[in-house]
Amino acid sequence: MPERTPYIAANWKMNKTVAEAAEFIDTLLPRIAATQADVVVCAPFTALTAVVERRYGTAVKVAAQNMHEEASGAFTGEVSAPMLVELDVEAVVLGHSERRQFFGETDEVLARKVPAALAADLEPILCVGESEAARDGGETEEVLERQLQADLAAVEAADLERVVVAYEPIWAIGTGRTATPEQAQEACAFIRDVLRARGAAADRVRILYGGSMKPANAAELLALPDVDGGLIGGASLDPEDFAAIVEASG
Ligand code: PGA
């Protein structure tokens, strides 16, 4: 089985001004200088350039938190993949549950966004995850399978390994209620099985866990066989906490 490089991503959401982003990166870089992991900072659009400029020559990759599926056009307020690539952004979060819930992002739109990101050479970090009601109703796998099949419908099997998938149970996001290691492992293994059945080189796909990951629980979650990294919200706002999670991946 190929070794998968750990992938630790900070999802800042709608946090950090340019000045705050710069301060974060300046504190973070010396703390993670020796890491072997892929360290990714998902910054708001306005702070992307500040992060990109500071991370040149380091292991840090920069991601946006959303993009439009078209390259250009009459879509007021939107940002496209070529615009992100021009800034030297390398990845983009797609389908985060907050975008699905608050901004009406649908699987149908994601089915266009994921291939658009790949075509522009942006690494998609596709988020999937069940609600609390779905978990309580025993429908977790059904929800994950439906989201993966729909969102990746237009991605060729050979390209699936270029997608990073984040398993983010909605009930664990921002709640302090982290999934148990058993729940995280089971869901991430299931996601890998779905990708394998779609023809992916599934052993090469990075699958992340997200939802109240923090320094105190990161090592246990990141040691699970099918959890290759984390998408970290709240605990990624503090460079010391985020650096501690990066450290826990090694
Ligand atoms: P959280 O957020 O770590 O604050 O739970 C994770 C996410 O939404 O990506």
How would you describe what is shown here?
- The chain has 250 residues and is of the alpha/beta class.
- The protein is built from ten helices and eight strands.
- It binds 2-phosphoglycolic acid (PGA).
- 2-phosphoglycolic acid (PGA) binds at residues 11, 168, 173-174, 210-213, 231-235.
- 2-phosphoglycolic acid binds at residues 11, 168, 173-174, 210-213, 231-235.
Question: What is the topology?
Answer:
Blueprint: E1 7-11, H1 18-31, E2 38-42, H2 48-55, E3 60-64, H3 81-86, E4 91-94, H4 97-102, H5 107-119, E5 123-128, H6 132-136, H7 140-151, E6 164-167, H8 181-197, E7 207-210, H9 215-222, E8 229-232, H10 239-248
Parallel strand pairs: 1-2, 1-8, 2-3, 3-4, 4-5, 5-6, 6-7, 7-8
Helix pairs in contact: 1-2, 1-10, 7-8, 9-10
The chain binds 2-phosphoglycolic acid.
Assembly type? single chain
* First and last CA, distance: 18 Å
Number of helices: 10
Strands, count = 8
The arrangement of helices and strands along the chain is: EHEHEHEHHEHHEHEHEH
Q: How much strand?
A: 5-15%
| Spatial ordering of strands, largest sheet | 1-2-3-4-5-6-7-8
The best one-word shape is globular
Rg is: 17 Å
Listed once per kind, the bound small molecules are: 2-phosphoglycolic acid
Mean pLDDT: 97
Unreliable stretches: none
Helix proportion: 25-40%
User: Structural class of the secondary structure composition?
Assistant: alpha/beta
Q: Describe the biggest sheet?
A: 8 strands, parallel, barrel
Task: Please outline what is shown here.
With 250 residues, the protein is an alpha/beta fold. Helix content is 40%, strand content 15%.
